[in-house]
Amino acid sequence: MAALHAAALARLGPAAWVVTGLPASFLPLAWGLWLMMSVAPDDARWRSRVRRVGWLTLITAWLSPFLPWWLGVPQLDYLAVNAGLHYLLLIACLMSLNGLAAAYAARTGDTALRREAFAGLWMVLWLSLCTVGVLLWLFHRAGLLGAGLPAILRELAELPREAQSLFLLPYAMTAYVLWRAKETGFKRAAE
């Protein structure tokens, strides 16, 4: 997912490939969530929690094509609003995945994973807020906040790659936590 979001932000490859690849990049996550349902098939609360994360993932995947579409035509408010909604839901999805990993850790008794999952949840929130805050501060210093929405959207679409990489930071902690949850699952299966 992170690689295809980076490709979309950097405009790498044909737009049709990126538009198709972004929703498809959520398939491994959907498969993992489906497998998580089997952790406690009789626990309605667990299944409900996994379903909520699954629905959030599905909606986020559905909105993902708006990112490359908006980058191609940054002056269209409709595309910008949907790309922004995609970003907000993606952050909520990453936070939910960290929360699900913490709940899984509690079920399995892995206290280290539980601490890491909660740290991941707060890191995703913190990194996202810092990214938005830094961009708002930079746009304020450059006088763009008073220039109106079209100017801001144009500048957001033309951010340098270094600045665009800030949007990808929340993936790192979540990927680590999910990898650790997978390891815990494999250890439990081997026992």
- Gyration radius (Cα, Å) is 18 Å
Oligomeric state of the chains present here: single chain
Number of strands: 0
Low-confidence stretches: none
Beta-strand fraction estimate: under 5%
Largest sheet: none
| Total tally of structural domains | 1
Percent of residues in helices: over 70%
Overall shape: elongated
The first-to-last residue Cα distance is 31 Å
- Whole-number average pLDDT? 84
H and E string = HHHHHHHHHH
Topology:
Layout: H1 2-10, H2 15-24, H3 27-36, H4 44-63, H5 66-72, H6 77-108, H7 111-141, H8 149-157, H9 161-164, H10 169-190
Helix pairs in contact: 1-2, 3-4, 4-6, 5-6, 6-7, 6-10, 7-10
Entry summary:
This protein has 191 residues and is mainly α. It is built from ten helices and no strands.
